Amino acid sequence: MTITDRTRFVAAFFFVAAVASPSASLGGEPDRAESLFQRARALMEKNDFAAACPMLEEAYGLDHGEGTLLAMALCHESNGKPATALREYRESLALAVKAKRADRVMLAESHVQDLEKHVPRIVLRLPSPAPNALSVRLDAAPAPAEALTTGAAVDPGTHEVSAQAPDYLPFRTTLEIRVDSGVVTVDIPPRTPAQPLSPPPPPPPSSGTRVLGLVLGGVGLASAGVGTYFGIAAFNAEAKSKDNCTGNVCSSTGVSDNHDARTDALVADITLGAGAVAFATGLYFALKSPSRPRVGAARTPSLVVWAGDRRAGMGVATTW
User: Fold this and answer.
1) Residue range 140-164, pLDDT digits in tens
2) How many CB atoms lie within 10 A of CB 224?
3) HSE on the CB side for 175, CA within 13 Å?
4) Do residues 64 and 91 lie in contact, with contact meaning Cβ atoms separated by under 8 Å?
5) Prediction pTM value
6) d(Cα 73, Cα 232) in Å, to the nearest integer?
7) Cβ atoms of residues 190 and 127 within 8 Å
8) Are residues 92 and 178 in the same domain?
9) Which range of residues forms the domain containing residue 107?
10) Which three-class secondary structure state does DSSP give residue 168?
């Protein structure tokens, strides 16, 4: 505090001390308010504003006296809170005008004019065009209208500016404001719309050719099983026919068993041969198929196997 500021403070303090006693104001607990005011006054005389200001705040909460408000503004100004003091001086000025207290009007008005020139301010500049439903906050509260024009008065210290809008990435920055910071401008940057997290893409479908190759391989293996079955049946039928034949002469049962043996052997030969071809073809398609199906590729084929009384068959069904 300079000599000029000290002289100004002393003059204002003794003026307030003379006219601001809570005992002259109406309140629910005038004795408690008066005690707090007098203790705060003694601390302010010792320049202990950090301890005096909370007492004045408590006293004002009890009596809402105009003089107490003026003293509280003076204390906050001297304690390095110009924005808080400016707000209180303005309120005190309005009350003094309403009460026609010219002395208090002059005191409050002179401090308002002085603080208006020096109080730190934060100016917020919105992007153009601004997003719909843009919400801008200063210290977790909606930014006041003056923050977008002349600037919001703030006390020295740490302040946070944040902005958000639906479907936009949030913006946040922290400022360190000093007594001599003056006007600090914060540009709210235009934000790229936030893209919602997309689920991972599904794995590409298997190639129709590859599936066809796998099915043909299955056909080959199934054919091998069917051929083996009828091959064993042929051996069994041939053995039974020999039991019913003497030389080249056979009974009717032997003739029937011999016929069955030949039929089973033929089916075994056909199915084993077809199975080998199907398995080889399927292996070729499976190894040579592309990783992604072409447009119009075949849908998933299906294997059809049937078997009956000494009859069997198999095939591949698909739609193109």
Assistant:
1) 999 999 999 999 999 999 999 999 9
2) 17
3) 24
4) no
5) 0.55
6) 111
7) yes
8) no
9) 3-117
10) strand
